[in-house]
Specification:
Number of helices: 15
Oligomer: single chain
Number of strands: 6
Strand order of the largest sheet: 1-2
Strand content: 5-15%
Largest sheet: 2 strands, antiparallel
Radius of gyration: 35 Å
Length: 393
């Protein structure tokens, strides 16, 4: 890995601490922007999705990042909107940081990359890359990669897919390594100032010659006479602050648990039924009479919830197991637009409305039957391969 001298890098980072604030601000902005909506803007080319610091982000780049995020187990079962936001956020961070990597001369060499790969358990446990002693062999890996690259040139689809997978993996690993290195340099630059660097440098360069005499403690103890109780008491009197004991307190208290009364529960239920059926209420501070629509008749559910609910609105899809037990039967049997009655969940009353339902398949059940023949490694019958093939259809 080739880098600028450490001192120069740290000084460069300290002079541009504002960059961290900009990166955080852009990342937060990316959280509230739906990347799919950016296509509504008019760019010179339909292939350009947006710009970050003057760098164009193409649709292909976004789709590639979206595919990487979608395959990440951390984001399984998330909606497309959330996945898109995450993909766009990572593209913004990557684009901003890439300029800084180039400015300070950071890069990841193949040697450092392969050293990192050699520590990956999946690579260590792959027999194709083992040296025979259970350790990762770089020579075998490079030989395997070269072989796949040659096969890919001949049009072998499997080899081409393997090479493409490796290129994408290499790119992702390189981005992660260089980002971690840059963050480490930022941390060092923020916690160590120039004076501390100079002090540490001078301290390491200083040398001293010391002469000393060792007197064993036991030898010194034999020369000390017996210490009397009076001497101990006198020492304590002369050093009262060292032996001062903090005063203790004996406290008694009564715990009164605050719980809603029957009247409180009845009033809360009455309030919830008002949202269920609609109501007319008077605002005491202004005397204005306001009409509140029923939850079932409103068109803008999110605005209604944000206005009247103590909990924020969420548009995420939930599976049956992710819902409270009290709501599961209602959601399972209700149709789109159905409104539940006021249901008590723990210490709160809840009104629920089914806005949409969607079937999301996250697994499949597979069963198969193996038909053996005489050409297999373990011969269990005299059936020919052709006969076994006929039986399979």
């Amino acid at each position: 890995m080739s880098t600028l001298p450490r001192k120069t890098i740290l000084e460069s980072i300290r002079q541009k601490v504002w960059l961290i604030i900009v990166v955080i601000a852009l990342s937060l902005l990316a959280l509230v922007i739906d990347p799919s909506s950016l296509t509504n803007f008019s760019f010179q080319s339909k292939d350009i999705l947006g710009k970050v610091n003057g760098t164009k982000i193409s649709v292909n780049q976004f789709n590639e990042m979206l595919e990487v995020v979608s395959k990440n187990p951390q984001y399984q079962n998330f909606s497309k909107s959330i996945l898109s936001n995450q993909a766009w956020e990572q593209l913004v961070q990557k684009t901003i940081l890439q300029d800084k990597f180039e400015n300070i001369g950071l890069e990841i060499t193949d040697g450092l990359l392969y050293k990192y790969i050699a520590q990956d358990p999946q690579m260590q446990n792959n027999p194709e890359f083992s040296d025979g002693k259970g350790k990762f062999s770089l020579i075998k890996f490079e030989s395997w990669l070269k072989e796949k690259q040659e096969l890919a040139k001949t049009g072998n689809e499997e080899a081409l897919q393997q090479v493409n997978n490796w290129n994408q993996t290499k790119k992702n690993l390189t981005d992660n390594l260089i980002t971690n290195q840059y963050v480490g340099l930022i941390s060092s630059g923020l916690t160590v100032n120039k004076n501390e660097v100079d002090f540490l440098k001078n301290d390491l360069q200083k040398k001293a010659t010391i002469n000393y005499v060792k007197i064993p403690y036991q030898e010194h103890l034999n020369k000390v006479g017996k210490i009397t109780d009076e001497e101990i008491e006198e020492y304590i009197k002369q050093n009262k602050k060292q032996f001062k004991v903090k005063e203790n307190r004996d406290l008694s208290y009564v715990f009164l648990q605050s719980e809603p009364t029957v009247s409180d529960v009845s009033m809360a239920l009455q309030t919830m039924n008002g949202f269920l059926n609609g109501k007319i209420e008077k605002i005491n501070s202004t005397g204005i009479i306001d009409t509140i629509q029923s939850f079932s008749s409103v068109k803008n559910d999110s605005l209604y919830v944000m206005t009247h609910s103590e909990q924020p609105f969420t548009s995420v899809y939930f599976s049956e197991n992710q819902l409270p037990i009290e709501l599961q039967s209602f959601v399972k049997s209700g149709g789109i637009g159905s409104i539940s009655t006021a249901i008590k969940i723990q210490n709160a009353f809840v009104l629920s409305k089914i806005i949409d339902k969607r079937a999301i398949t996250d697994s499949i059940e597979v069963s198969h039957i193996l038909i053996g023949h005489s050409e297999t490694a373990q011969k269990i019958n005299s059936r020919s391969k052709a006969e076994a093939s006929k039986l399979s259809f």
